[in-house]
Write a structure and sequence with these properties.
The protein is of the alpha+beta class and 66 residues long. Helices cover 36% and strands 24% of the residues. The chain is built from two helices and four strands; from the N terminus they run βαββαβ. It has helices at residues 12-25, 48-57, and strands at 2-5, 30-34, 39-43, 63-64. Strands 2-3-1-4 form a four-stranded antiparallel β-sheet, with helices on one face. The chain is globular and about 25 Å long.
């Protein structure tokens, strides 16, 4: 699992867009969101760099949470 801080994620539309984009690239991905903390946990076969690129391309620049 990889956790990303996504500062621009603020609502259900945001989470829906992120989930759709990630699942388009990896249908088996599992995502969980914390809107208050503005984080998303992603369990995926994709590499961290690929996930970060998907988020950025969708308009949600992110950073990995250590």
């Amino acid at each position: 699992m990889t956790t990303f801080n996504v500062p621009d994620m603020s609502c259900g539309h945001c989470t829906g867009a992120i989930e759709k984009a990630v699942k388009t690239a990896d249908a088996g991905a599992v995502l969980s969101f914390d809107l208050e903390a503005r984080t998303v946990n992603v369990t995926s076969q994709l590499q961290e760099e690929a996930l970060a690129k998907i988020l950025e391309d969708e308009g949600y620049p992110s950073s990995r949470v250590a």
